[in-house]
Amino acid sequence: MPRKSKAAARSTIGSNPERNRSHNRRVVLDVVRQFGPVGRMEISRHAHLSTQAVSNIVDDLVSDGLLIKTGRLRAGRGLPPIQFAVNPNGGMTAGIEIAADHVSTLLVGMDGQVRAQRTLSIQRNDPKTVLPVIKAEIEAAQAQMKTPVPQLLGVGVVMPGPFNVEGMTSVGPTTLSGWLDFDAATGIGQMLGSPITLENDATAAAVGERLHGAAKDLKNFCLIYFGQGLGLGIMIDGHPYRGANGNAGEIGHVLVEKGGRLCSCGQHGCLEAYASIQALTERLAGAGINNVDYSRLERLHSEKHPVIQAWIEEAGGYLAPQIAMLENLFDPEAIVIGGALPPGLLEDLTQAMQPLPLSVARRRNRSEARLLHGRTGRLTAALGAAALPLLETMTPRLDTAHAARSEPPKEEISLAG
């Protein structure tokens, strides 16, 4: 979970009407997550809820095992207030990354700590093959944990996009086959008997870096995500931006070379055809180097293989203008680059982009770097996947909060802060 900082700490507004109780539970959990251990009065102040409403919700959350009492705060006169914190063993979420050649599984506690992790290589990535793998991998990960195993609150599932785009979906080696007409959320949910949150891998990776990595103190940033293909996660005011159909951020299919190389999507000259792991492995295959996994890619880079060096220069040249474009479009605090590239290769790629083109990011008083390296590596998307249901449980939804503010109050509603 995000550490407490000026950037992370914010005032969360609750609403007292009984019909908004589910929203208020998320508000209280979010306040305790940020400021805990914390007492009822302080929760009430941060959440803008009445003390009685907070008391009732806290009691319910303790009964549900989501909050725990941590003792009394010794300060001032009178009976010290009881302090509450998020129960790290009150529940957990699963994060599943379905990639073209593997399935990664993480179990993450309420405190954001990874409790178990597994990665399994797969030869086929169609739903009939992958669904039994997901179930077996979650059970195997649970078996790795010490008993009692916390309740599973939800499952986040991420896979490469784009979703449901005519002519671009389930095409080529960077995507999945057989998923176009398959309702993934319903199919996986019925199999596991748990709520499912479905997301594209780049957006989930941005959530992963926000909660666990280089973007902990950032609320507005973009993540260029290297899977097999190339994606973009966009975070605006601390929330992922998905677009109308969940396809925001398909930067890999931006045209950068008129009549250029054939991309797996069927177009010519896409950025992904030049600046992606798939593009790199294709160049290596052309040099007679096949079946390149992460470790071998790392070794070839350390040996300064000429194909690797040539790809770095070419990819950096195509990526640098995209960095400036993103800065001009979104005015982010920074651009994060991460995913499945080995750290040393990522460092050299970043250097190859320098000097970056002029953009709105060139501010006179700027002290932070324009480009940051992701810190969660190959687990970025799976970490983000596990965070998605956690955010559903613990973070208030903006649309619900806005609705609560716009409707006439049935009880005392404080909108201060």
Strand and helix layout:
Layout: H1 21-35, H2 40-47, H3 51-63, E1 67-72, E2 82-86, E3 92-98, E4 102-109, E5 114-121, H4 127-143, E6 152-159, H5 184-192, E7 196-200, H6 201-212, E8 221-226, E9 230-236, E10 239-240, H7 277-286, H8 294-302, H9 306-330, E11 334-339, H10 343-352, E12 371-373, H11 380-394, H12 398-406
Parallel strand pairs: 3-6, 6-7, 8-11, 11-12
Antiparallel strand pairs: 1-2, 3-4, 4-5, 8-9, 9-10
Description:
This protein is of the alpha/beta class. It has twelve helices and twelve strands. A five-stranded mixed sheet has the order 5-4-3-6-7, with helices on both faces. It is globular, with a radius of gyration of 23 Å.
Features:
single chain, 417 residues, alpha/beta, Arc Repressor Mutant, subunit A, Nucleotidyltransferase, domain 5, 3 domains, five-stranded mixed sheet, 12 helices, 36% helix, 17% strand, globular, disordered N terminus
What sort of overall outline do the alpha carbons produce when their principal axes are compared? globular
Reported CATH architecture of the largest domain: 2-Layer Sandwich
Distance N to C terminus: 23 Å
Count the E strands. 12
**Helix percentage:** 25-40%
Which range does the strand content fall in?
A: 15-25%
Strand order of the largest sheet: 5-4-3-6-7
H and E order = HHHEEEEEHEHEHEEEHHHEHEHH
The fold-level CATH name of the largest domain is Nucleotidyltransferase, domain 5
Question: Which stretches are poorly predicted, pLDDT < 50 over at least 5 residues?
Answer: 1-13, 15-19, 397-417
What is the structural class?
A: alpha/beta
Total count of domains = 3
On the 0-100 scale, what is the average pLDDT? 83
State the CATH superfamily name of the largest domain. ATPase, nucleotide binding domain
Rg from Cα: 23 Å
Counting DSSP H or I runs of 4 or more residues, the number of helices is 12
Biggest sheet character? 5 strands, mixed
